[in-house]
Amino acid sequence: MVLNERELMEYGMRLGSELAPGVVIALTGELGAGKTTLAKGIAKGLGVTDEITSPTFTMINEYTSGRLPLSHFDVYRLGEGEAALVGMEELGYEEYFFGDGVTIVEWADLVEQLLPEDAIRISLSYGPDVETREVVVS
Ligand SMILES: Nc1ncnc2c1ncn2[C@@H]1O[C@H](COP(=O)(O)OP(=O)(O)O)[C@@H](O)[C@H]1O
Ligand SMILES: [Mg+2]
């Protein structure tokens, strides 16, 4: 689907309101594709009241004010290949991926091998004009 920013946020809110415990949402798409925007919508849908900021430098942000605990990863700075996998181990990713909260992962393609099989995969890319993004859910 092709969505503008408001529609992407609303899509995230709907998704967030329906999520069950233990779900991992794997987001892919280049810089500016809308991963963090979508994460904000999902957080809102979960009832998170905190301001959502990009975990670019912190790698993980955690929020407990919603209906379910939310952990929001941005793994870009872990690097690629083996470095990303080692970095994830160091972050203790298993507790998040296989715990009872909801986990959102930006740049999920970098840690593809670690994702649970049943992760919700959403790829974002630039749309037909500057205000839209193409969103593919699988
Ligand atoms: N349809 C859209 N959906 C999401 N963001 C959009 C859209 N159109 C324009 N934008 C802009 O693109 C940027 C997306 O940034 P962000 O969500 O942080 O992306 P990412 O986390 O993938 O790098 C924001 O500046 C936002 O205002
Ligand atoms: Mg981002």
Can you walk through the features of this model?
By secondary structure, the protein is an alpha/beta fold. It has one domain (2-137): P-loop containing nucleotide triphosphate hydrolases (Rossmann fold). It contains four helices and seven strands. It has helices at residues 5-18, 35-45, 81-91, 93-97; strands spanning 2-4, 24-28, 60-63, 70-74, 102-106, 120-126, 132-137. A seven-stranded mixed β-sheet has the order 1-7-6-2-5-4-3. A hairpin with a 5-residue loop joins β6 (120-126) and β7 (132-137). The longest helix is centred in the N-terminal third of the chain and has 14 residues, at 5-18. The radius of gyration is 14 Å and the shape is globular. The two termini are 12 Å apart. The model has no long low-confidence stretch (mean pLDDT 97). Magnesium ion binds at residues 35-36, 54, 74, 106.
- Supply Rg: 14 Å
Estimate the mean pLDDT confidence.
97
Element-by-element helix/strand order: EHEHEEHHEEE
Instruction: Work out the strand percent.
Output: 25-35%
Full CATH superfamily name: P-loop containing nucleotide triphosphate hydrolases
How far is the first residue's CA from the last residue's CA? 12 Å
Number of spatially distinct domains: 1
For this structure, the CATH topology is: Rossmann fold
Q: Which ligands does the model contain, each kind named once?
A: adenosine-5'-diphosphate, magnesium ion
